[in-house]
Write a structure and sequence with these properties.
This protein is an all-alpha fold. The chain is built from 6 helices and no strands. The longest helix is centred in the first third of the chain and has 17 residues. The N terminus is likely disordered.
Length: 119
Amino acid sequence: MANPLALRLAGLVLLCMVVGAPIAQAAITCGQVTTSLGPCINYVKTGGALPPACCAGIKALRAAAKTKADTQAACKCIKSAVSSISGINYGIAAGLPGKCGVSIPYKISPSTDCSTVKY
């Protein structure tokens, strides 16, 4: 028969491991995404000259996405933003990261499934 004190101690240790385990949370906020991509709004509506501040924002956002959770959070924020702004040319929006020399693992589109995005 097992020692009841040993079983309680083992249970307590297991509980502490489960409760103390880190939970994947995104460090990127929609506020950061909005601020970073704000200079891109007119460009993705009308095209024309690509503002340097737009590419700087995209590069900063990509650099800030250090985990899968960050990348998915950025994707969700971008998807929400482009869905709420009228007049977005989704062809221009989808090509924006490439024009700035940045690779992102998803297409900027309201139909993107951000939960499947990998880092």
